[in-house]
Amino acid sequence: MTQEGYNPRILGFFCHWCCYAAADSAGVSRYQYPPNVRVIRVMCTGRIDVRFILEAFRCGADGVFTGG
Amino acid sequence: MAEAARQALEDIGVDPGRMELQWASAAEGPRFVELITKCVDSIKEKGPLGTASNEAGDEIQRRLEAAVKAASASKVRTSFGTLSKKFHKEGDYSPEAIREAISAKVTPAFRKERIAQEIKMLLEKGPMSVTKLAKSVGSKKAEFEKIVAPLIKKGVLKEEKKGLALA
Amino acid sequence: MVEAGRSPNIEILTSATLKSIKGRAGNFTAEVFQQPRYINEDLCTACGVCTMYCPRPIADVYNERLDITRATHIDFPQAIPTSYYIDPKACLRVNYQTCNLCAQTCTAGAIDFSQKPKNMKLKVGSVILAPGFGRVGHDVLEKFGYGRYQDVVTSYEFERLTCASGPTEGHLVRPSDQATPKKIAFLQCIGSRDVTCGNGYCSSVCCMYAIKEASVAKEHEPDLDISLFFMDVRTQGKGFDAARKRAEEKYGLNVIRARVPKIDQIDSKLALTWTTDDGESHSDLFDMVVLSVGLDAPEDAHAIADIAGIELNSYDFCKTSHGAPLSTTKNGIYVAGAFQGPKDIPESVTQASGVAAIASELLKEGRGSQTITVTYPDEDKALEEEEPRIGVFVCHCGVNIAGVVDVKAVRDYAASLPNVAYYEDTLYSCSQDALKAIAQKVKENRLNRVVIAACSPRTHEPLFQETLRSIGLNPALFEMANIRDQCAWVHAQEPEEATQKSKDLVRMAVAKARLLEPLAQPTVDVTQKALVLGGGAAGMTVALSIADQGFETVLVEKSKVLGGNLRKLTWTVDGQDARKILKDLVRKVEKHPKIDVMLDSELESTSGYVGNFTSTISTGGKTEMVNHGVMVIATGGKEYKPKGYCYGESRQVLTQLELEQRIAKGKSGFKTTKNVVMIQCVGSRGEDMEHCSRLCCSQAVKNALKIKELKPDANIYILYRDMRTYGFSEDLYREARQKGVRFLRYTPDNRPEVVKQARGIKVNVYDRLLGEEISIPANLVVLSTGIAPGENENLSKLLKVPLTQDGFFLEAHAKLRPVEVAVDGVYLCGLAHGPKGLEEAVSQAKAAAAKAAIPLVKGKVAVEPIVSRIDKATCIGCGICASLCPFNAIQMVKEGKRKKAETITASCKGCGICASHCPVLAISMGGFTDEEIFAQIHAFSPDGCGEGSEAEKK
């Protein structure tokens, strides 16, 4: 069921070398995507600790996107 | 990491589908856009945290707090680290093998610790009956007793008339 | 490009041409003429306002004239220098003293019409020629209807048409009616492999780029029907065959082996007619035809040759030899890239590094005498330790951000955040004057943390950090919020949401900034000695170059003699005496006072990190320790040993190398030879090994021609899949055909068969033209067996350097870092990297020598400050981190009774796997600590999410 007008809050953990770079390149090409994601840059997805993901949900995230 | 997180989320009543692990290389702008759009759509589908059909409602906030504490506990982390080391050494990273190993080694340790943390958090507000406590933390009687017994022995908890309380 | 632009020791002269070179190696005077840009590079912020106001439209040459730009313009946004310039031919102000609009609208005051053309004399020690390649002439393209039919485009134009930053923003349309084409044909070898246009050579890159362009087009338009017309599919680059196969399968590309002689237009379609090698003739209609244009010699090749006093080859490329591919015919003047011969990016980048090594050998006496080292004031430690005083600067980036995001609202929001002591919005925060202003504000307000909300830290963090350093602040006290690339640009239709997201990102950045701590920027000393593994052509070349650059080198060879695979060669493809090259190399290596050769030796173990390796070398049972700063893998490969084809069962079945040795003995070995059959791709390209061995096609035609010399009436058959005689080797292929060598193509599902008979042997092969199997009685069957990887697994484990699927060592980046590997201080060249001929192996060896010499020359290596730090008091010595580290950057050291983990900061890349797996949370990552990340997570929540909750405290 999709709720009308519901704007989920999503936290992203992006790898500096891969996903963060991909996000930048999407920007350079002016591709458009929904503005629901807030990003925390890490040097590698290996940095991401289970605690971060749980804490993100605790802090009100409706979803977490980890991008390597 | 992702598998451990997914199983932890499942344990505390958060739809594990709320966590996505995806790959996009530096040059894959279009792919990134596709992934993000899909992710946002899928979360929209699920609705706000705690409202999806397989999710714990009001307790979710407390569960999450207990879960973060549990994920910081050295016992849980050791089981996770040791397992990662083993996988790294053997070089077998098939999703099935990872899922199985995490659910055999890491998730039970996590669950135990999470329940213990949650019991402590609940009892901070005052004593509570065993039945109510067990129900609140989502645990069956046998498992609950197994977790509580050592806590009493260590003097973290004490038994009272009303049930259990912090020592 | 950015790096070259940032280096204080590289001066970039644009719009400049070389007028003369006088003097000799080590002491040249070069006369250079420079056209003015009419825009001051230092003042220009690349905001683009001047282009908006410039009234003079001109063709956009960067976009292949498919678009228009203005007389005042920049070629593309990432150009270095990142500054606009004025085309003097079109500018009204320059030609008629009118207009001047750009100067009036430039807020940076960068337009300067007082600039005059300049002549300058430069004192240089050596000259490197890298003018690139030229365009194939228009007349060649016209033969294929280009210019006559609008929908015949060049591959350059097609590249721009499918590029997201191109004139159509990546929407593929055909020029005649702007409709999306449904059916496209790529014609290969336009201006290549074509003696009628004077270009007999193969351009080497077009097969792969056509497949890439076809794939990109399919990504945009999945329903496209694409046919590619090849003579041979020459995807011989490392990993290219695999990439081609994937593309063919994923996108369903039609690969047709035929040359289309001409194109006709029928209504709005293009009609192609062709004949395949089974003799059948076909025709079809297409919406669009792409001409895969080859690489020509630079248009001004003759002028360059005259000025530099060098010779050109018959195709007007720079003349070089396979033994010394980077040297021109004049001492002190060197060449790199496509001017040396058509080549792809990896080979060009490799040659560029290689040529740097040669220049460094020549100029070693004067090294360091003219280099500029940037110095910074001491850090203000007291200020850094004070309560955080954060300055937030929100960038408009012209209209790039401000056109979507309400920048002023974001700035005011920043003011409400704790510890923010100063806030401001700036028009272009990265411009020179804005950087100065930021520095000024930081000083005035005694700020000790800086947050800039602008573009991506990937591109701009170093610039801002430099500013911090220049005023005595540690560069780690800096954080960026990416509100352009990941916000304004991608949420252009949702200004409110974008503004909200910007606020959130600033809040998260400020939360992290509050906790930032200064990070030490340590350097470690380098042991100025190199270890080279492998004493073949590549290994010897590396050792000689490093030694000639002035450093002690230990050369370790497994066998009892130097030479490796070069010992088995008799001639190079360009006809030089391989044994002489070998002898010269061995003599130089053995005589060199700085090279220590260890024969019959192998690497047993290695520990340490860039600058400080310690290796154990075993020599016939005895071991020796060597301390060295860098290491080069040049362990080579080996000739693949064929399975089947009666190899080993009949003395008449040889490999190409075995044949070469027989040829070396002269005529006597071929007295009774009538029929010779060569079989290509034995073991390669999916038979046993997946990769293409790259050199066997040239090797086969080379040897076929040698046999023809010794025995002119011998019948020679070469059974092949694709003849991959790329580059100038195509000449040999043509010569072989002219001399009557017969080439028969086979497909992998119908391989030739070698059959032993009572007397002699015969080869059965399907003749495509006849449409039936034929039997060739053969006196000699020669198997082109290709290159198999050496025993690399062990070394790979020892050094933690990964292998490719094919078993060769994997470079750090296929295109940009082709001779480096994942482990710092370890370099790679020769057959250990992948199959290649002598010419390429030598270039690569020089490149590895150049890269390896960098830490040796500097004497120190700087360590990234984002490394992991291990709290020894907390560490329980479990060793999980050490075993998981992908860079071998954690070692376990004994401290008292227990073992403790210790980071080797020089090897650490800051990935953080150790930290996220530490059971006791003893590891923290510089710039990405648990506390900092938790602070960001908390700030993700608008209400701070119970900041300082128990969870984040250990």
Describe how the helices and strands are arranged:
The complex is a heterotrimer of chains A (68), B (167) and C (954).
Chain A: E1 10-15, H1 19-28, E2 37-42, H2 50-58, E3 63-67
Parallel strand pairs in A: 1-2, 1-3
Chain B: H1 2-11, E1 19-22, H2 29-46, H3 60-72, H4 74-90, H5 95-123, H6 130-137, H7 141-153, E2 157-159, E3 164-166
Antiparallel strand pairs in B: 2-3
Helix pairs in contact in B: 1-5, 3-5, 4-5, 5-7
Chain C: H1 2-6, E1 16-24, E2 27-34, H2 49-53, E3 57-59, E4 68-70, E5 72-73, E6 85-86, H3 92-96, H4 101-105, E7 118-124, E8 127-129, H5 138-142, E9 152-154, H6 155-161, E10 183-190, H7 206-220, E11 225-230, H8 240-251, E12 254-257, E13 263-266, E14 269-275, E15 281-286, E16 288-293, H9 301-308, E17 333-335, H10 345-362, H11 381-385, E18 390-395, H12 407-415, E19 420-426, H13 432-444, E20 449-454, H14 457-470, E21 478-482, H15 484-488, H16 495-515, E22 523-525, E23 529-533, H17 537-548, E24 552-556, H18 578-591, E25 595-598, E26 601-609, E27 612-619, E28 622-628, E29 630-633, E30 637-639, E31 653-655, H19 656-664, E32 675-679, H20 696-710, E33 715-720, H21 730-738, E34 742-745, E35 753-756, E36 761-767, E37 772-778, E38 780-783, E39 787-789, H22 792-799, E40 826-828, H23 838-858, E41 860-862, E42 868-870, H24 880-884, E43 890-895, E44 898-903, H25 913-917, E45 923-925, H26 930-940
Parallel strand pairs in C: 8-17, 9-16, 10-11, 10-16, 11-12, 18-19, 18-20, 20-21, 23-24, 23-29, 24-25, 29-40, 31-38, 32-33, 32-38, 33-34
Antiparallel strand pairs in C: 1-2, 2-7, 3-4, 5-6, 13-14, 14-15, 22-41, 26-27, 27-28, 30-39, 35-36, 36-37, 42-45, 43-44
Helix pairs in contact in C: 7-8, 10-23, 12-16, 13-14, 16-26, 17-18, 17-23, 19-20, 20-21
